Amino acid sequence: MIFAVILAGGTGSRMGSTDMPKQFLEIKGKPILNHTIEKFLPNPQFEKIIVLSPKAWIGHTKELVRKHTGKNDKIAVIEGGATRNETIMNAINYIDREYGLDDDTVIVTHDSVRPFVTHRIIDENIKTALSCGACDTVIPATDTIVEGDGDAITAIPDRRRMYQGQTPQSFKAKLLRDSYNSLTDDEKEILTDAAKILVMKGIKVKLVQGETFNIKITYPYDLKIARSLLDEETE
């Protein structure tokens, strides 16, 4: 079975003066979250689309889903965790309780504030995760990457080997959970995303080609870009 896992558990502190998490901000009359969900709904491969929300916003999230998609049994809204990876583990535990996990159960995890993911990217994530166990969506780095210690350069890696990470990140769910549970507390503290869990365990994570427009809406300026991209989609 294959599940979409939409990560809407953040509070969006970098968006500035807003009284709600950024995934609930509206663009073109619809919350960003709903634009994102709509990219996954048409794909018949998904058993369920699981939306993970901050506890205080679960009721609001359910109402937005109902308002913009109607009564849709394909979507479940559940509580996220304190961190990104705990949120993903909540999704895996939900799948285990409701459906059971086997070695080929796949989760396609995606930022709720990346509403421009394409059907091609989603399909390639599913195919790669099924065949290889794990994959990460990336685009080649176009700028020189500089490593520093705060006030001085310590290294300049070869740009040809550098990529910018996006989402989806997709995994065989049991493999990811078992790998996460085998980490020490100190190792869990330094995690920045789910793919790093497997990298730390020496498990290969394949690359899937992303798109430059598959942006994450993080700052107020990103909202302007998103509105322009939505204008192009509707032309």
Q: Care to give the gist of this entry?
A:
The record marks 14, 22 as: Transition state stabilizer. This is Ribitol-5-phosphate cytidylyltransferase. The chain is of the alpha/beta class and 235 residues long.
Query: The CATH topology is what?
Result: Spore Coat Polysaccharide Biosynthesis Protein SpsA, Chain A
Oligomer: single chain
| Major sheet strand order | 5-4-1-6-10-7-11
**DSSP strand count:** 11
Summarize model confidence as the mean pLDDT. Answer: 93
Shape: globular
In CATH, the homologous superfamily goes by the name Spore Coat Polysaccharide Biosynthesis Protein SpsA, Chain A
**Beta content:** 15-25%
Roughly how many Å apart are the termini?
Answer: 36 Å
Unreliable spans are: none
Give the total of domains: 1
Q: How much helix, percentage-wise, in residues?
A: 25-40%
> Mind telling me the CATH class?
Alpha Beta
Number of helices: 8
Structural class, please? alpha/beta
CATH architecture: Alpha-Beta Complex
Radius of gyration: 18 Å
Order of helices and strands: EEEHEHEHEHEEEEHHHEH
Biggest β-sheet strands, sense, barrel = 7 strands, mixed
Structure commentary:
It is an enzyme of class 2 (transferase). There is one protein chain. With 235 residues, the protein is α/β, with parallel strands linked by helices. It has a single domain (2-234), classed as Spore Coat Polysaccharide Biosynthesis Protein SpsA, Chain A. The protein contains 8 helices and 11 strands. Helix 2 (58-69) links the parallel strand 4 (46-53) and strand 5 (75-79). The protein is globular and about 55 Å long. It starts with a strand and ends with a helix. The model has no long low-confidence stretch (mean pLDDT 93).
